[in-house]
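Re: duplicated header lines in exported structure tokens

Our pipeline writes sequence and tokens for each protein into one text file. With two proteins the header for the second block appears twice in some exports. Here is an export where it did not happen, for reference. First protein block:
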Amino acid sequence: MSVALYASKKFQGSSDCPKMGIVSVRFQQAAGVVLDRGEVIERTAAFVRSRLHSDSSGHDWWHVERVRGLALLLGRREGADEYITELAALLHDVSDYKFNGGDLDEGSRVSYDLLRDLGESEACARSVAEVVRNVSFTGAGSVSRMRTIEGMVVQDADRLDAMGAIGIARAFAYGAVKGEAMFDPDQAPHLHASEAEYLARDGSTINHFYEKLLLLKDRMNTESGRSFAERRHRVIEAFVHDFVAEWRLEDLPEL
């Protein structure tokens, strides 16, 4: 069995796979084997998939795969570096603060270490880690400003996947995992002024639409992102309107 095949197989299976995968890559580097960019992408994707395959919160491998496709499409339109864009899209949720105890830096650390272990340059690893650190939405009053076009398209892609029909499904999947009420008419939405305030949020899933999802259209970084967001925003607006109307029985004909 080749070293490359051995290492890729180690990424699949048990929860120990990520660690085993990285160790096998370190062995390759010690042996002087250099991975090409296609192999780095393949190993990175396998690593992420092994970590997220069992997620049921809407932050699973398929979310990553959709963001990857969206980011590459946006990147081609906006002139982003395709390699950095694809790596950052693959790693953007490798350790989401919502599930790791609130550590906003862990995802960037994991990304940096993985890429260095795969033989990537420090400059490349740092570029990707910077995107991963800043990609998340952290409150209405906390504006995350991406410094690079690669960061902009990955963030736009991530936000596009939080919109439209899939965004609605993901919101309720996340709410169920977190034990949130579907809706509480006695609890008003709150536009969080700071990152700390948003991290401590405690509300219903419908409130999340007002506190985040309906704000995303106007937070897009790129012209392409803004264009793609228009239809998905309308889908969310229509859903919230219909949900509230049904909750209040306002959708029924008068008897």
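Second protein block, exported in the same file:
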Amino acid sequence: MARAYAADGSLTQRAGRGNLRRWGLQSISSTDDEGGFMFKRVALRGTVAAVAVSVAILGIPAAQADPPPPPGEVAATAAKAQSDAERAGASKPAPTSIPPQAPPIDVTDKGISAQASTGRIAVTIPDGGPSVRVGDQAVTDKYSTRKLGVDGATLAVLRPGESSATWNLTLPAGVVAKVAADGSVQFQRAAGAGTITEYVALAKPWAIDAAGRSLPTSYEVRGQQLVQSVDTTGAQGQIVVDPRITYGAGIYLNARGYELNALRIAIIVAGGVLAVGTCALANQLPVPGPLKLLITAICAIGGVNLIQVFQAIVNHGPFNDNQCYQTRLIPSSDRFDGVGEENCSGL
């Protein structure tokens, strides 16, 4: 058994020849005597081996991760990024005002939430804190939650090496989060033969680096979590990302053409729109169960003009059976438009 020495020549521990070779050490021909034992001095083969042996034998701790930034720094970084995003046109206010029947968007130290037709939808930071108040922001060592006009946002300041941030989603029963074609997040629920897209939405995501440059970014829904990922190629300094909850552009009805055709025929046979223009009368239409559930879901939304919805169905004429169609219930619209299949599926 040989004894290994550190770079300064001090004895560190016994080492067999096999271990010497494994550690990158080699024996030096001279020998000494210490305490009556013969041993060989060993030398290191290169700087890498010296570092590895120092950590493994001497117990030197590995490099520690950088400490998290103080809340004031997170708040300043988030505020600057928000301003940069607005100047770049990446962060935009809600396209419409808060619907009359909905309470204001709620912003707390834990996150943001808004009232959907069947309950509240919330986006919260992991573990809920702890957080401190810095001006109009509730700040942790990574997240900043604040009010933005009628909207609410929960920004994340990515740490060096990070390319994504995660939030928790809390949804009413039956509601699912879906990433739309434009990158925003919509919240939908099944409605018999169709689906209802809620007023509440997460605006199209943005990501800004320290130089004020917009970076490619996208949302992904993973169970009860929202993940925002960023392409950090060429990014400078810290990156900030921002889920923004808004009341969007309205509540929408989505249904396939063959369902709307069946409802259209039933309305015409019953004597026209005025003959079935109330929820009580509409529920008496001789249509399959899924269409009855669709009518019930429409009637459950306060402020819907059922006559206008039925008139839009009749006026459209025959629908393409396999096409997904959409109309806006609130604010009301007088037309159905073909939309992507994702609006009618996945629930």
